[in-house]
Amino acid sequence: MKILLTGGTGYIGSHTAVELVAAGYDEIVIFDNLSNSKLDVVDKIAKIAGVTLEFVEGDILDKAELKKLFSDYKFDAVMHFAGLKAVGESVEKPLQYYETNVGGTVNLLEAMQAAGVRKIIFSSTAVVYGEHAKVPYRETEPSGQGITNPYGETKHVVEEILKDLAESEPGWQVAILRYFNPIGNHSSGLIGEDPNGIPNNLMPIVMKVARGEMEELLIFGDDYETPDGSGVRDFIHVVDLARGHVAALKHLHEGVQIYNLGIGEGRSVFEVIESYERLSGRELPKRVVARRPGDLAAYWAAADLAAEKLNWKTELVLDDAMRDTLAFLKG
Ligand code: NAD
Ligand code: UFG
Fold first, then answer.
1. Between vectors from CA 20 to CA 15 and to CA 24, what angle results, nearest 5°?
2. Cα(219) to centroid of ligand 2, in Å?
3. CA distance 23 to 38
4. What do you get for the CA distance between the two ends of the chain, in Å?
5. Is the Cβ atom of 207 under 6 angstroms away from ligand 2?
6. 151 classed as catalytic
7. What's the 121 CA to ligand 1 centre distance in angstroms?
């Protein structure tokens, strides 16, 4: 089975490539413009997985490159990771986010349609549930209401496009995966989250502080109505998340299926920091500051649908993610 991974040198795509090979899917082609990842990731994936992968440098905004890609390779399925993901930046540059995340996806779907490829797994987010959804978030909850940033809107729009497309034409097999908060990395420490520019997610910032590249970790609020006052999220190990993609691929069938990929429980920002500090034996310079605008107090996934339909559940815990982060930091 030949599988295209758009954005496959990125954080989640690279871990998914490793898990696909481990599950026997070793015909992988990565298509990425390297705007937020590095070329050497291809060799690192190959080293971990023990196979060679094909890499094509290209942009989902370039229709001609996509056309060539689909004529050069006969794909059976596509996993679509390519996109922009910084929530804060999306508020400042909404057009860039709509262009890449929505426009780029439309280009990809057009190229797939023209080539007769109708299996796609799409990277969505828990943000589509919006700020009024009941916790834990269930796939049956309405989505698209009360989304607090353009990034989340782009993911919601793509979900709607995929539903309309599958409705318009028989044969489409679509899995929409709503990720909660991926953390950690492969235990080898070879690949991990290494964003260009200033990160805004918790773990990349913890890593920058640990490396001395940032002075201190700012904890955004300790006055939430949560057990310890800090924000609560469903932190899922990226290797478990990657395995969720393999499970979704195995269970693809006609129509659109939507699954949460999360652990199914919330952990707090203070708990994450505690785990990191205990395992590293080092205290991080840190300071509590005001809440970050737009942040929700607490949410996590209802994870039973993916367990039931995909026969998938998470196996790794917070300490595993921190141990693997330390391995990545050592390089
Ligand atoms: P990432 O930035 O590490 O990976 C995305 C990859 O896409 C990068 O390698 C980047 O170079 C590439 N890319 C960006 N624009 C492109 C373009 N126009 N053409 C070709 N390639 C392009 O991000 P990630 O964390 O691996 O996220 C993967 C997907 O999952 C994204 O769609 C993201 O929105 C979604 N997602 C991520 C999270 C998270 O917390 N990491 C949560 C929910 C959803
Ligand atoms: N946090 C801090 N300090 C920081 C960074 C984060 O205290 O420097 C806190 C936040 O306030 C929040 C928690 O850590 O309580 C997690 O924040 P992240 O920025 O790591 O993640 P978010 O929950 O805000 O959003 C993330 C991704 C989205 C994704 C979503 C899915 O940014 O892309 O999870 O739930 F869609």
1. 150
2. 11
3. 25
4. 33
5. no
6. yes
7. 14
Q: What is the CA 45 to chain-centroid distance, rounded?
A: 17
pLDDT tens-place string over residues 129-159: 999 999 999 999 999 999 989 999 999 999 9
Contact 107 CB / ligand 1 (< 6 Å): no
Number of the ligand 1 atom closest to the C-alpha atom of 37: 9
Query: What is the rounded CA–CA span in Å between residue 2 and residue 26?
Result: 8
Condensed to tens digits (0 to 9), the pLDDT of residues 19-60 reads 999 999 999 999 999 999 999 999 999 999 999 999 999 999
Q: Which two tokens stand for residue 188?
A: 């080898």
Q: Hey, what are 128's tokens?
A: 């589509």
Can you give the pLDDT at residue 200? 87
Calculate how far, in angstroms, residue 33's C-alpha sits from the geometric centre of ligand 1.
11
- The model carries a pTM of 0.98
Q: Is 58 helix (H, G, I), strand (E, B) or coil?
A: coil
- Spell out the residues 6+ positions from residue 223 whose beta carbon is closer than 8 angstroms to its own: 229, 291
Q: Respond yes or no on whether the N-terminal peptide bond of residue 170 is cis (omega within 30° of 0).
A: no
In whole angstroms, what is the distance from residue 106 CA to residue 127 CA? 21
Compute the mean pLDDT over every residue in the chain, rounded to the nearest whole number.
Answer: 97
